[in-house]
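so my prof wants the structure for this chain in the tokens format not the other one, which i didnt know existed until like an hour ago. anyway here's the sequence
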Amino acid sequence: MSTEPTPLMKQYQELKEQAGDALLLFRMGDFYELFGDDAIEAARILDITLTSRDKNKPDPIPMAGVPHHSIQGYIQRLLRAGKKVALSEQFEEAVSGKPGKTLVRRAIVRLLTPAIQFDSENPEASYLALALPENPAETTGAWALGCLDVGTGDFRFAQASSLEELLSQASELPIRHWLEMDGQAPAGLRSLLDPQLLCETLPPNYLGQEAAEDRLKRQYGVGSLDAYCPEGAVRRVLGILLSYTLRTQAPSLQATGSGTPEPGLAHLRVPEPLRKAKALVLGPRTAQHLD
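here's what i got, hopefully its the right format
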């Protein structure tokens, strides 16, 4: 008996490679299907029936599905459980009886995380966050923190002199997705965070200092960032958050190189300090008339 995967499962496997650690919702007609470990995990979280594909084969593939008309509710439940979700759509209708037309074109159109949802039904603030050491060779000193709420475009940064201060500042916002660079993560911070928080490790070369600053300059259409944020690690943190968010849009096109260059986020606000100065600045006329 042949164990060669069918054309449909080959297509699924290709998209699953692009989805990485995200649960892949694979559109098949009126349903979104999940397979393998994704199906087992989703069935547990969503409390839906776990079945299998190719039941007559020695190694049937676990399978679970949800109807497309209620997909938003299921996605929100997966995100609240701290999962990433890759949404795959089909771009043509299946035509039976015509060779070459039994497999329809599909692509991942959106990668959703607890903090990156855009047009979701979730009205709550949800921040994507990242912290990097000011000195890459030392992870016990000063830190740069960045936080981005994609839904509102709120973009914040902070500088902390210690891990304790970093955690204190990070706790002021509802962070739902925490990024960290491999080898440059705050020691012991994960154990202090919410267990439901999605934590993701990026490769240390994900985006260098120069590339991060260039990404920010293109976002705001400026030649200098001096009026926007401090020099150093803060700029890299903000650039990485922006780039990561943009890469969640149409990831299939970006994976094949056929997509357009990374756009910007039109609603993104200018970066602001997480903690603003707790002092009232008085103008000269006001000061002159005060006793």
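also thought this was worth mentioning. The mean pLDDT is 85.
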